[in-house]
Amino acid sequence: MKTITSIHQMHELVSLAKRQGKKIGFVPTMGYLHAGHAALLRQCRKENNLCILSIFVNPKQFGPAEDFRRYPRNKKHDEMLAKKEKVDIIFYPSVKTMYPTGYLTYVHVRTLADHLCGPRRPGHFDGVTTIVTKLLNIINPDVLYLGQKDAQQAVIIAQMIDDLNWPTRVKIIATVREPSGLAMSSRNSYLSDPERYQAQALYRSLRMAKKLIQAGERRSGTIKQKINAQIKKNTLARVDYIECVDAKTLVPLRTIKGHVIIALAVFLGKTRLIDNIQVRA
Amino acid sequence: MKTITSIHQMHELVSLAKRQGKKIGFVPTMGYLHAGHAALLRQCRKENNLCILSIFVNPKQFGPAEDFRRYPRNKKHDEMLAKKEKVDIIFYPSVKTMYPTGYLTYVHVRTLADHLCGPRRPGHFDGVTTIVTKLLNIINPDVLYLGQKDAQQAVIIAQMIDDLNWPTRVKIIATVREPSGLAMSSRNSYLSDPERYQAQALYRSLRMAKKLIQAGERRSGTIKQKINAQIKKNTLARVDYIECVDAKTLVPLRTIKGHVIIALAVFLGKTRLIDNIQVRA
To answer: Does B11 touch chain A (CB under 8 A)?
Structure first.
């Protein structure tokens, strides 16, 4: 396993791999790796000749009041996990390397960031699409692996790749959960024990909502209310949003129909957690 | 010489070329090819194993009141010229192929479009950076050839490629001119004979300005005034702008210093012409 910090070196390495006809799989992360990342890496390892992991806490996708500085980092642990998952290359650039003085260019996907986390985190998704554009150009992967847990991010990146014509396939990998149902997230490390206990309620409420739909409920207002009630009853959380959206356009639905994502964001103390579940109605 | 209209076919072809270790040169154009394009193609042919030309009149870089519909097109002529310049592949996609229904993604370079043509053509440079991003992802060239005639476009694209990390070198090729000094442009075909005669004054005024600077003049106000007077005296043109800007930041200068571009845009009848000259002071 090699750790590379220079863009030029990555370009050279990728160019050689292409000449050798190697298939490149890529897992972009912000590090502090957990079982969710491991699932992406395992799939990537299985399906490609070259398995590349990037670790970069991207300042452009954090708002000024958000947790960029305190976002958890642990290079030693990440390297150990990457080695265990047989990663070939870790791309580990500095902020200065990715955003040198005089940096000016941004990628924007219209409308898809108008809902869910978009309005609550202004600029976040432009930060995401911009860094992913850079990483795609540096690594030129055949396949990009993303987690379903960040559902809106996955939809936006897939749309961007389709629109901007990289020859890259996107694979969305199912959310990995703790036995309690809590979705794996680097930000779970912020949670106190009581908060972590309460956090189980998120996925439980999403499963309840899915069952309601499967039992015939089609009014999204009713579904959102019941999720909200369950979270209020079992946690001290402040709900940021609960929404039922079309899985492709991310537009909120009054009536459940077709392929739907039920998504939520809540604050448990200072920690913002997101989760989602998919239903076909 | 092959003409390809499908993005997927281009991806396949480029991927094969990469496996064969071929160096790819790329000249993006809107067609109606002239001696300026031919100079780009000749350089591209000389320096690469695969010489790819794209022809696509990009609707996203035209304003609603601009000349998208009447922009000159002549596929037969373009193919003949391309063949003569030993182009390997013409990429010739439809608007529907490049911007299918539901298209949402745009690339924006900050500040560099705040001057010169930027404020006069709102959205133009976002259209340019977006289509060039798409073409770079489709063709994945080692070298991209651009004309110095579109100076602001060249600076913006070079910045974008640097910022977004494609492994692509940019080469800017000197403006090709008619014997009269008029810069080659597909839009010259709009000019009546009297307008074409008057259009000589543009480059003549730029050369005059360069000589003034070389003789020691440093006040950009004086230089712009003299250019304006010369154009007013010799043409019926309406001046859109005359500006002395820093060659890297494109910021207008009060005092000429360093690497400078003197750029202008004028309307001759309904036709908008641009030209520029570089000076080091």
So the answer is: yes
Domain at A186-280, CATH class: alpha beta
B76 inside 8 A of chain A by CB: no
Walk along chain A (281 residues) and give the pLDDT tens digit of each residue: 999 999 999 999 999 999 999 999 999 999 999 999 999 999 999 999 999 999 999 999 999 999 999 999 999 999 999 999 999 999 999 999 999 999 999 999 999 999 999 999 999 999 999 999 999 999 999 999 999 999 999 999 999 999 999 999 999 999 999 999 999 999 999 999 999 999 999 999 999 999 999 999 999 999 999 999 999 999 999 999 999 999 999 999 999 999 999 999 999 999 999 999 999 99
Q: B residues 106-145 near A, CB within 8 Å?
A: 106-112, 129-130, 133-134, 137-138, 140
Pick the CATH number of B2-173 from 3.40.50.620, 3.30.2160.10, 3.20.20.330, 3.30.565.10: 3.40.50.620
Structure tokens at B78: 């373009």
Q: How many CB pairs under 8 A join A and B?
A: 86
Question: Which chain A positions have a beta carbon within 8 Å of B141's beta carbon?
Answer: none
Rounded to two decimals, what is the model's pTM?
0.97
A175 lies within 8 A of chain B by CB: no
Q: Are B170 and B154 in contact (CB under 8 A)?
A: yes
- Asked if A96 has any chain B CB less than 8 Å from its own CB, the reply is no
Query: Which chain B residues have a beta carbon less than 8 Å from that of A105?
Result: 107-110, 129, 159-160, 163-164
| Residue of chain A whose Cα is closest to the Cα of B13 | A167
